[in-house]
Amino acid sequence: MKTTVAIPARLGSTRFPRKVLADLCGKPMIQHVYEKVKQANVADDIYVLVDATEVENVVRSFGGKSIMTSPECYCGTDRIVSVLDRLQTDLIINVQGDEPLLDPESLIAIHERAKISQADIITPIFKITDPADIEDPSRVKVAVCQNGKALYFSRSPIPFVRGIEKSKWLTHCPFWGHIGVYGYRRAVLENYKNLYASSLETAESLEQLKFLANGYAIDTVITELPTIGIDTPEDLEKATIWLSSREKKNSIFNS
What we know:
Order of helices and strands: EEEHEHEHEHEHEEEEHHHEH
Strand content: 15-25%
């Protein structure tokens, strides 16, 4: 099964322009993402899908490969679909360019599950342990079947635990958070332009709901390490603190 990891990297992000080039502990953020993908060692090819020559030059400077795409692409998946004819592969793993703390093990899990699962799409989830995450609309929640298939994704708390104070929900029911990484069968993306727009996707602003609404099966794999997506300068500061702390611990351990 030939596997390609595609990393959409939009320079003109609305909430945090130029974030893919933002400095994170001495490296541009997109380089951290690329190196995390390489650590997983599951990809036959890795491409950063860029929309600006400046990003293309940075990717080239650290030895990465890139493909130029239109700045008009609606989302990361749309960007991948726009160059699908150049990706001769069976499985395409979509890793956003603002996930520098991605756990490489999650990519390995997607790759391994794809070998045995009949699902159209595979995506990682993690068990929520902080009650604040349940209420946080930026932390996407997912309800899953016993077999790991995704039932629904939402920015709202799901499930609703009836008759129990919200502060105690985690002790009565497992809550799962979603990490926005997707392993797509090639056929799914080949049919992408034929999918109808979903009111659920529009309401929640979650592109995975388009696939559920169109009848695709989404399988999940569990990761132990939640990631920090970088949507704001404040997120970048949190990631810098987290990464600096981790590097310091590794330095002490290896000394």
